[in-house]
Amino acid sequence: MSSASDQEKLRPPPPHVLIFPMPVQGHLNPMLKLAHLLCLAEFHVTFIISDFNQHRLLQHTAASAAFSRCPGFQFRTFPDGLPDDHPRSGHRAMEFVSSVANVTVPLFKKMMIKENFLASAARRPVTCFVADGLLSFAPEFCEENGIPFIFFGTATTSYLWAIFRFPQLLEAQEIPLGGKSMDELIESMPGMEGIIRRRDLPGFVERAQAVVFNTCEDLEGQIVAEIHKHVPRVFSIGPIHHQVKHRLAEKKAESSIITASLWAEDRSCMDWLDAQPPRSVIYVSFGSLALVTREQVLEFLHGLLDSSQRFLWVVRPDSVTGSDGNDPVLTELMERIKGKGLLVEWAPQDKVLNHPAVGGFLTHSGWNSTLESIAAGVPMVCWPYFADQTTNSRFVSEVWKVGLDIKDTCDRKIIEEAIRDLMDVRKDEFMERAENLAKVVKRTVSKGGSSYNNLDGLIQYIKSLVV
């Protein structure tokens, strides 16, 4: 009679999923959480990461401890082609794009072939390649090597649909060219008619082929349905951070949710929040890439101070252009903040948004931040920076109606009025809608919810690829 260990040895290895994100925090975050979900499904997962980002990740997060409980997980590191003293953020953040294409991708391709597509005694060759939507080399690489390709969209589905429909928008002359009004509504986008204006469209175009989205049908169901007409399998499994929380609780797993923070989180802000009244604080953060000028900082500072609201503001050291950090005007204003607000360099955002003292979020409208705010039931004032953020802010204000969109302006009076509107004048109205929407998106990752079922569908699809 064979023992349990003998049966274990005879059991074929599970699917082996390769995950490759762009090496920036907003892309690492959801794709690390997908890796965690697949590990909970007892898959083998190989996660591609730069040497620099792995060092920062292990230094500032509990990722190492969390993944130590996932025996099927492994990092594979590569140089990103930039010198050690390169900041990889601020005004030089986008330099990594060409460096990844010219250095990381060729090394990755050589490694895959040399190591027989990561096969080992314990692992089968990769079953499928889950690639960030910004990695344009992935579809061709997969086709050449017979590897099933799964596209992961880190941006909002609405934004990717806008990109997918770009030729039709161009044909209908609805692209904002030739002096046309930026406020004119777009009518050539099924599922988004009468919502999106020309000014809400993405500022650049990328190749889009969608399969997995960090969204849910309750937020973007119409758009997901339109994309499904063009792609055979669409899995909307978000909000992915709540999906992980639910699956961990369901399995009674001894692990915490993994957050891909590349900066040290200042947790003293949680003590400060503990001392504030309920729903009295507006949290301010423009994410990991956005840049603001000295003049814009002054407008935001005056707007916040004039609103008479308490605030917690994340100001990355590299986020202000045109200032060496010793600006006397900024220093004076920072002094005025004392007693009215708190500035930190980085914060544990999900914990902040779920703190009872927080009643609003002044945000750049990145998709991770938007989803985290929605799931926490926190209304938003949206000041988008680039990419999908311009589309997200429009949906926050006009579709989900859980915030205000102040894009294309940075005026202290407008900022003051928007904050007062959100936190005081229409506070009850915004809070009620935000809390109701939070209940809806949380249900979607619970057993029987659409995102819960879609994740199960994704897991079964990957299992079906094993030959």
TrEMBL record:
Task: State the UniProt keywords alphabetically.
Answer: Glycosyltransferase, Transferase
Pfam families reported for this sequence = Glyco_transf_N, UDPGT
- Annotated ranges, domain Glycosyltransferase N-terminal: 17-241
Q: What GO molecular function annotations does the UniProt record carry, in alphabetical order? A: UDP-glucosyltransferase activity
Can the keyword tRNA-binding be found in this entry's annotation? Answer: no
Query: InterPro entries annotated for this entry?
Result: Glyco_transf_N (IPR058980), UDP_glucos_trans (IPR002213), UDP_glycos_trans_CS (IPR035595)
Its Enzyme Commission number(s) read 2.4.1.-
The reply on keyword Transferase is yes
Which top EC class is named for this enzyme in its record?
A: transferase
Q: Which family would the database say this protein is a member of?
A: Belongs to the UDP-glycosyltransferase family.
Please identify the protein, giving its name as recorded.
Glycosyltransferase
Please name the source species: Salvia divinorum
